[in-house]
Amino acid sequence: MAEMMALLLSFLKAIGKYRWYAVAITWLVAVVGWTVVSRLPNDYQASARVYVDTQSILKPLLASMTTLPNTEQQVMFMRRTLISRPNVERVLRMVDLDITAKTPKEHEKIVDELMNQIRIIGTERDDIYTISYNNPNPKLGKDVVQSLLTIFVEGSFGGKKQESEKAIQFIDDQIKMYEEKLATGENALKEFKIRHMGLLPRQGGDYASAYGDLSEKISQARLELLEAEEARNAIKRQIAGEDMAPVTDTAERAIVNPEIDGRISNVEKNLDQLRLQFTEEHPDIVAAKRLLGQLEQRKKDEAKKVRAADPGASYSPMLQQMNVQLSVEEARIASLKARVGEYSSRLAQMRSLSTQAPEVEAQLAQLNRDYAVNKENYEKLVQRRESAKLSGDLSTVTDMLTFRVVDPPSVPSVPAGPNRPRLYTLVLLGALVAGLGTALLLSQIRPTFLSQTNLREVTGLPILGSIGMNWTDQQKVRRRRRLYAFAAAVASLITAYGGVLAFTVFRQA
């Protein structure tokens, strides 16, 4: 400890020897430093606060209809990418800072300075964001903050709109592709059906079911043919074993004329339909009655002619009726035989195609399956396109994301910097360090022995004694004056520092 005190004392003595150099350097550094600080331009901070409302009543209402945009993630992304190079370059163009750059290097320098000076402060929990920027020109700082606020609001909508448009464009391209596939599939189905018209299964069944239905129909037709043949044979046996009987007047009605009976039946049906729509005096109903009477009269005349031409016909009405029934059964048997023959030929044709029909059915099923898959995907894409359009409209038109400017861009009248009092203090401290350092450096360049101990340590010789300085009165007065002058120089430095601080505070007020 004693050695340290001795070393410190020796340093102080060395500095004291060159104290006037220290004072001069201190004054010089202080004056230069204070001058530089006083000429520093004022730094004004422009700022704005905005509140982002990400809660909307449309979210629960449209949750099941479309894909809702993630507004929280969207705002967070915009906050993190707001101070990006493209956005900052856009700000330069909006505030006309780009025209001040004459070279690409100067342009890059301005962009880098802006990116370093712009600040965005806020939290996703409160949804309140503060945009600030410092610049010596308060109007320029305000314009920069206003431009950033505009980009922040527009970017939150524009990015989502662009994404929605890209998604819709992609879906439209896919829809066109599937439309082409559907058209190709429809043409393939049409050509396949035309080429295999006779082998295609009917609606609701395949080859096996059609074959089974045809077999059942031919069995039913054969059974009906057998029944008709038995009925015909029974009538023949009755006609062969029955005696002739005279014909009465009432048997006149039993004379069968298929042509006239058919026309009478048609006229009666037509007359019934007309009576549902018109009265009895309607001309159509009157004409139908007249025609019906004419046909009945014609039937009676034909019956009389038949009796006159065939005297035996008036012999037995029962025999005539049985002959009529026999002719009906013969006609029915002929039609059933034709039906059985047709069914048999169809069944034989299906048997001949038994190897081709299943393959055709399999190919048709494959074509229908591919067409159904493409149609299902096409319908889903159409629904997704409408959902994407609705989602894009929600992001751009509705109030899914609301921006409320809490504090518009403003610049306070008092500059935010530089902090001149602190800089003046740092300059004073630096000047003192420079002065003391200069004095210490000079003492090391031109060293002197300040005590017997230092002389003995350096030379290694014993010190026999020392001679003290005997100051005269005149020298004492000079020393005292130099001491007063040194104190006055130090005091004036402190006073100048206080004056500079007072002037700074007064000007800011």
Automatic annotation (TrEMBL):
Transmembrane segments: 20-37, 423-442, 483-506
Alphabetical UniProt keywords: Coiled coil, Membrane, Transmembrane, Transmembrane helix
Recorded coiled-coil stretches: 161-238, 285-384
Name of protein: Chain length-determining protein
Organism, as annotated: Pseudoduganella albidiflava
Taxon lineage: Bacteria, Pseudomonadati, Pseudomonadota, Betaproteobacteria, Burkholderiales
